[in-house]
Amino acid sequence: xxxxxxxxxxxxxxxxxxxxxxxxxxxxxxxxxxxxxxxxxxxxxxxxxxxxxxxxxxxxxxxxxxxxxxxxxxxxxxxxxxxxxxxxxxxxxxxxxxxxxxxxxxxxxxxxxxxxxxxxxxxxxxxxxxxxxxxxxxxxxxxxxxxxxxxxxxxxxxxxxxxxxxxxxxxxxxxxxxxxxxxxxxxxxxxxxxxxxxxxxxxxxxxxxxxxxxxxxxxxxxxxxxxxxxxxxxxxxxxxxxxxxxxxxxxxxxxxxxxxxxxxxxxxxxxxxxxxxxxxxxxxxxxxxxxxxxxxxxxxxxxxxxxxxxxxxxxxxxxxxxxxxxxxxxxxxxxxxxxxxxxxxxxxxxxxxxxxxxxxxxxxxxxxxxxxxxxxxxxxxxxxxxxxxxxxxxxxxxxxxxxxxxxxxxxxxxxxxxxxxxxxxxxxxxxxxxxxxxxxxxxxxxxxxxxxxxxxxxxxxxxxxxxxxxxxxxxxxxxxxxxxxxxxxxxxxxxxxxxxxxxxxxxxxxxxxxxxxxxxxxxxxxxxxxxxxxxxxxxxxxxxxxxxxxxxxxxxxxxxxxxxxxxxxxxxxxxxxxxxxxxxxxxxxxxxxxxxxxxxxxxxxxxxxxxxxxxxxxxxxxxxxxxxxxxx
Length: 632
Prior knowledge:
The chain is mainly alpha-helical. It contains 26 helices and two strands.
């Protein structure tokens, strides 16, 4: 039995029940066109230029407004074209293609660029006699990934150049090339893995892909209709008004100063409940985007996320109050560290279990790729042969790159497994839940690798590799704003029957990444030399991981292999294993192991989704549930 969200939960029938017309497969004759491909690239360049200049704070999760705003814009443009110039109107598949391609590099402006540029130019500017980084840490960094000290190149980047001075593009190009190759290598690894797992997730585990479902629903329309059907539904407009009304009120408040601001949708730390000393706060965040997408999520997952949130607060608070910790003398793990180790162990188990339950499917793809006649290979958007070979080549490239930035082979493999588990977990379970804030607390695994491996067992090159790999600008960004990997299987799902072996599909990822990278880096570097990077940001993001090398290399802050922390990590995996077993044996088992792997700060928002969905399904049935969907 898998741990897919459907499980054996009796309340998930409505999430997988078939509607009269499936918007992802209707109009099967439609296809991906060159027009849609080009429009998507133009949209990427324009949106990323706008974001870098005006809205870099948009980047808060792996489906940011840089995806949603173009979707709404193209829907509006297409409505106009259908009315005024119908022969030039885009098909539904073309709009979905634009949306999917724009999504692939959408986190580049904030999730990658700010950290990458600060990493590239940070050591040469911020090394000082006081922090001793230049003498202790710099010799162990791969010099080809960083700028050398230069008053004109580096100093001008941080402080700005005098008006009229030429921007020194030359030193940036060879450095940025390797950072781009890291992002491309990780993206291609995710692309080929998604090709191999996609049918397993869609057909065998029946993941619901909520992030692909809502744009398809927005575009579904009757055969002779001019506007999407959802826009004719009064339930949709009630939901729209409940969110947009608050936003428009607050916008008006910028101009009419005596209008009080409605604080309902404010940031995470605005509404909190402080339970007591030593207890983490309970966040009363109402997040409309998360809530709208989570309504498609099965009830057992919703229940798990909101019920485990206060239990995790209680667990950490009790451990803090009684002084509980684990670890060898001099290197204890605090309650928050224990929770991170526990969550990472659970996530690692879920990934291993996901691969295990997909073993028959993977064997079948391998057989079709290398043992059967070539015409039996039905992989898409590339053949299974190409997917297996591509996954092997991109994986070897990334492992070689890890070693090139300093890792020894054993630690490179171990860290690749931890990081790969994080990326795989976010990708699969975003397809299962629709949560755009699905992020492992261990991020890429920097802290977990430090605790489990021990910095005393690392070479100086290992420390260099750790600092680079765990920078959010390297190899696909951070897990909160992951670049391209979670979007790839959703892109496949958006295309429906149009998912074929088409160069416009399999070529979309590398071309979109290149356009996004060139636009984002070019705009950011130009702005930095004109206005000064320090005037655009608070400082070098991610510099702390590089600076953290110094005390370890000097022997002042060294940790050893710690079996107690390993036991906590294994315990987290055992918890996930137990819950998986219970789900497979009891159809009504309410707790999903995903809640341990991905602790949520948004438990209150999830509760506000779970409660009405539970009542609607319990007392209104599937029919009423379907009628309520447009509201969300």
